[in-house]
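User: Quick one: structure for sequence A, then sequence B.

Assistant: Sequence A:
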Amino acid sequence: MAAKKLGLGVDIGGSGIKGAVVDLDVGVLAGDRLRIDTPRPATPDAVAKVVGRLVAHFDWTGEVGLTLPAVITGGIARTSANIDPSWIGADARRALGQQIPNPVEVLNDADAAGLAEVRYGAARDVAGVVLLLTFGTGIGSALFVDNRLVPNTELGHIDVGGTDGEDLAAAAVREREGLTWAQWAARVEQYLERVERFLWPDLIVVGGGVSKRAAKWLPLIRHRTPIVPAQLQNAAGIVGAALAAAENRGY
């Protein structure tokens, strides 16, 4: 029997940094996940030290895939969301690689989740235009054309009636404002209508924690595009990061 193809993915978020070894043949975690709280402040040096601990914990010697809640171009972080503003303009590959003796690939967190869903999950074998939207603290987006990623889309920030899209319809807004599922679904519908003015996707995949409870809100939304919940859920970022490293798909 052929040995499993394994990778290591680390998903850096505003509250936690999570890592695991991934079975890249099937897109599942090959062992237990380790989570460490994101340091405060979440500066490049502080985050790199935590990532170094994670990689050492798994005794990993191959490439490491890393996600950041940031636009990444040429390895440089151009934005920062829920991490320290000192990331903006930082060489993310160099900053994170200082604590890791392995080659690293760095990409946007929503892009990583999208890679996982397209390769292994809800968008597997779907041709045409696929859009992943993650509803959490904000709204992340990943856009694919015939399974090829268009990196660093920021569709969570499109204007919806004078309001930033994620300020209107992120999952955190539902919790913060005490909205019912029906009230929040109405806002998501407004947001999706705006997205569909600019794009004609063949499929929209919705991720984030609310994807686990899709039955409570997806049936309440009128939409033009077929919409399905993500399948990999909380593992998507880790799986996508490991896949990106194995295929040298950092940005």
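Sequence B:
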Amino acid sequence: MPRSGFVFDGVAVAAAAIVALVPLPPEWIERFYSNGAYPAIDRAVRALTGPVPFTVGDLLLAVALLWLAVYWVSELRSPRGGSLRSRVVRVLSRTVAALALVFLWFEVSWAFNYGRVPLERKIPVHAERTVPARVDAFADHAADELNRLAPLAHREHPTDDAFEAELFPRFSAVIARLGDRSIFPPPRIKPTLFQPLMAATGTNGFTDPWTHEVNVDASAYWFERPAIYAHEWGHISGFADETEANLISVLTCTTTPDPLIEYSGWMLLWFNLGKEVHVKHHLSALARADVKGILARYHEQVNPGLEKAQRVAYDRYLKGNGMKSGVTSYRLFVRWLVGADFDSSGLPVVRPGVAAAPP
């Protein structure tokens, strides 16, 4: 490989290292990326990937792996590539550079959102309201809501397109309250080649940060899908943190005037109550059957080894992107629901200057 090739590889790796090791100020990211470049990037990416009926990210991954295999074999077998040692060095250099470019696109296309101003700095929380007794009372309220909504929710079996349209106005109001100044249209739920892996690892949904596509576990019950979808949509709208996406989902679903969607939001909350929470109110037979159905599906499909490996890997990934709580961050949003003030529309009261104009 000419010297210019190694220079290119070095520049790519150096750029990736700078991005990874030199964090930008949260206020800068909030203003110039999350509410600056990112909405335009999302529109451009989704204009290309959105109309395609399958997950483009799956195809790109398959092509990348095939290219890598062919490249390694062809280069190492090439009789004109010098000694075996020089060929190995060249192939390793180009492979690391390619991975660096993939990482750079990951950061630029979506992951800089990990560094935006966190919601814990946007939403004032009254610490005295987050004591165990208050959390237990809130869990009892969740049980009451599930009981109230279960019969109504079971009358509906909407298509994905139907609940996406139903969610859009409320979702837009929620993200505007939390600081987004752009509209993020509903992403299309797409089938994925990795559906078996999602089921085996207990992954309910996935957002592809490179192609801005959303997958929802095909085995999820119809009453789970709206909340799972709203969570992934929250990621698409620039909220990378898992607990923030959960908050967006619950706020969107539980304040949308549709019993099924409300039920979906309360169900997502129910499964994010910690083991330390004591619920005194009993679930109705119908709501209890739904909870048991979800748990039964989990135990039937999930491979414990794969689930543990995926959990450990994702925990490290989250911590590597500044989420100190790792996978436990999913349930931290309950603190906001218990300790924050809410207005008459059901949205949290935020600090001055945070909320965007309503869409």
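Residues 79 and 87 are 10 Å apart (CA to CA). The radius of gyration is 22 Å.

User: Thanks, that's what I needed.
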